[in-house]
What does this fold into?
Amino acid sequence: MSKRAVITGTGHYVPPKVVTNFDLEKIMNTSDEWIRQRSGIVERRYAETGVGSSDLGLEAARRAMENAGADPREIDFVIAATLSPDHYFPGIGVMLQAGLGLGTVGALDVRNQCSGFIYALAVADQFIRTGTYKKILLVAAELQSHNLDHSDEGRDMAVLFGDGAGAVVIEPGDPADGRGVLSTHLFSDGRFVRDLWMENPSPRRNPVFDRELFDQGKFFPKMDGKNVFKNASERMPEAVQTALAANGLTIDDVAVLIPHQANDRISQMVAHKLRIPPEKVVRNIDRFGNTTAASIPIALDEIVRDGRLRRGDLVALTSFGSGFTWASALVRW
Ligand code: UT7
It folds into this structure.
């Protein structure tokens, strides 16, 4: 039997600047009441100008490596998940490799938006199972606040997102103790590309960076919130059910569910459809908003560090986001 991938260290980092709903009230036509009621968000973190997602990722990675007791020389592969890389290219994987002083190991960037962490975990899982790598660093980092439309027109999206990063170290486990990633299930439906996307900059255009588009505010992300909401609350429970069935488990076996922190009402619907008690469902959207690919590893690190997650617990992860892409993973902790 191939060795399962075990998460041996976790870490997260969020920038220190707290932006409350009341702060947003001052710059756009919104209200604390609306944001709390519709999303459960109270505050989020924004990075300072000059900071990039790789900087947040570096700090989260350092914490995860320290938590795992991993020496930089032992890391043999890097996977970075982000929709907000520092630059159009290259991705942030190489910046993490250089910034952490890792050897000339491979650095892969995964672009699956809110599902980025689980997609990246699936990749890491395969590399560990095949024995290709022995210590993978997976970092999910997002910096969205610098490209949100903070005018009234962009308020539906601007109030939801925040900056942050989460990281894990993944190693082969001891097959005897049953720990590790049991399975990952990945899905997509590209018919809905336009329902949650950042259309520009686009190399379909010539020139790509067009002043007119810029002046029209067409470099901001856009979404059809209602359709995203509807699909997210259906697809995430479906993905968890698929994972449970594939492993011959039931929802009662799950100790902790970490849904991608998209909207508190979505998480509640996911919990309701899965018939899992709310106390088993992790929630930190009130403090961080939606941090896209980083939301699951940030939540995971919090519950590891506060002792909520215990050795032997079954953890279910699920995500939904732009693409559409969605995914689930079951991990025996
Ligand atoms: O990781 C995936 C990322 N995306 C998501 O998870 C988004 C999923 N969708 C959602 O979370 C919800 O659709 C929203 C929170 C974005 C919106 O909630 P909703 O209950 O679907 O509201 P709505 O779109 O039906 O809008 C209701 C009203 C509208 O005004 P009118 O047309 O009724 O006069 C909006 O213009 O609320 C207005 N509105 C706002 N009002 C105050 C939209 N955004 C805001 C805002 N503040 N920030």
